[in-house]
Amino acid sequence: MRLFVKYNLVNVATTVIVLLLSGVVYYFFIEHALIHQLDKSLVVEEKEISDYVNENNILPEASFTKDEQEFYSSINNDEKVTRNFSSVNVRKENKQGQKLYRQLEFPVTVKGKIYHAYVRKSQEETEDIVQLILKITLAIVLLLLIILLIINRFMLNKLWRPFNSTLNQMKRFNVSGSNDVYLQLTNIDEFKELNSAVYAMTEKASRDYNEIKSFTENASHEIQTPLAIIASKVELLSQSETLKEAEMNAIQSISETTNRLSKLNQSLLLLAKIDNKQFNKAEEISISALLIQHVNNYEELFHAKEINITKNIAGEVLVIMNETLAETLIINLLTNAIKHNTVKGFINIELAEKYLLISNSGKVLNVNPVVYFERFKKESTAQDSMGLGLSIVKRICETYGFEVDYNYSDGVHSVGINF
Amino acid sequence: MKILIVEDEKELSDGIATYLKSEDYVCETASDFNKALAKIDVFDYDCILLDITIPGGSGLDLLKELKANNKMDGVLIISARNSLDDKITGLTLGADDYLSKPFHLSELSARVAAIIRRKNFDGNNFLKFENITIDTVARSASVKNRVLELTKKEYELLLYFVSNKNRVISKDAIAEHLWGDDMQGSNDFIYTHIKNLRRKLVEAAKADYIKSVYGMGYKFSAQ
């Protein structure tokens, strides 16, 4: 729910409730005040009648006008008449409908005889006024609602503009890119605070990112150079003509291990770089061409292992991605299929529109194939597997939102990628 | 042939120098920016091995200096940074090749030889070993004017051997040279290639130059 919808709901609901309540209260107060006014004028009539009786010693004539009625009824002396105000409905003269009157009844004594006097005044005008007030109140409620909605719609949109602009800038912010955030100036304190927080945060993120980036590079530099020294010394040592068999074995072992270590370091560095999104530059890559090129490069390897290769590569499968990553992806998939293959095995490469499936024969699998995507998981302890190849594949796919899955059944391993 | 090694790690530059000297190269070393600058100002080298991160400045600046002075020295960047940006920048600035640390000395030696061959203006693109002649432009090899039927990889393997003659080359180095970093560990694959190349050479040249060195790799030599 949008903030302004929620705000509107609360705002409108409160306004309506308060206005309706005040309308009801208003209604009762006004009615009470008007009736009080009527009662006062009834008392004046009562006084006039009393004065008339005192002066003339007879009752005034009864009168029935539209707005006012006066009449008397004689009663037995043992009956008691109490002075009382009340609202009564009186049948109209033409017998159609009723009319509301305010009535005062009181006893009048003329020549020792007690009469029951009634004075009535029409209450209809009062009702009309009250109804008018109610209508006006409702009209105000309606008008206020409309005005509130209009104000909210235009005013709030305008008020939130700096916020929306900041939000857009933050969405566009890329820690590895060079695009700084430029936030709209605003005189609203909350937004000023938000903007300064965003500035501080993005600056810190960029700084930290650059630190990590240079740390990764520096760490790699620090490790690669000693490795290079070891590798060069071992290679020089292996040139010696006087080596004994045991020394040769030791040298070979050091050489291979150094090689493994340096490849491991490079793979970790590559993963770190992908994680840090340092391969931002993307272009249209022909997966078909890339596949064919690398399959050709490895052709002799297939022969050497007597691997039967079948390919079904669709013409121009184009994917927007980084060139280095695309190449790394294809190379990792192919080398994985070659390295973990069996002698006289097969590799089947299928590339259709947006879908690549590479399946190969291989050793029987004892673990869930999904673990292959995790770093350093491998089935064999053979030194030729670094356990990082498929996690690199996975990270590259994640970077571009490609779906990747690993399947195994009956000695056939297959990796599928949905571009 | 004169080579300048610009590298601050003395152990590494010594190792490189020792390996290259036995290829009859004259090697000099410079351990920082200023020493290197002083040398390239005065002397001409056939090839300069350039580390990017050196004390006192950047190897890339040295490269700019070279190109600004129209020096024709070949340049091979050797960097531990293995960063694509550096590689692209280096090659755009006019470096001839890029090799990331750590590397095999045999690979380095082959790359240096290739740069020097390309830089030579006397049009000598023939490499000779005993009775084998390699034409690096046509990318073919022949024995006594009879062209050998070699696959692409066998040709590369032969060139690599000749560039590192009389040296023990590890299987890792050969595998990486032929298929790139990612085929490392696939040493068993190279056996077939070696076998085929050896058979073809023996047939044509009547001599077996490829020697297996127990446990370590192969050596290409006439003895």
* Span of the ends, CA to CA of chain B: 25 Å
Number of strands of chain A: 12
Number of strands of chain B: 14
Shape of chain A: rod-shaped
What does the average pLDDT of chain A come to?
A: 83
- Give the overall pLDDT of chain B as a whole number: 87
Number of helices of chain A: 9
Placed side by side, the strands forming the largest sheet of chain B appear as 2-1-3-6-7
Structural class of chain A, by secondary structure, is alpha+beta
Q: Name the helicity range of chain A.
A: 40-55%
CATH secondary-structure class of the largest domain in chain B? Alpha Beta
- Proportion in β-strands of chain A: 15-25%
Residues in helix, % of chain B: 40-55%
For the record, the count of structural domains of chain B works out to 2
| Adjacency order of strands in the biggest sheet of chain A | 1-2-5-4-3
Summarize the structure in short.
The complex is a heterodimer of chains A (419) and B (223). Chain A is an alpha+beta fold.
Offer a few descriptive terms.
heterodimer; A: alpha+beta; 9 helices; 54% helix; B: 223 residues; alpha/beta; Rossmann fold; Arc Repressor Mutant, subunit A; four-stranded antiparallel beta sheet
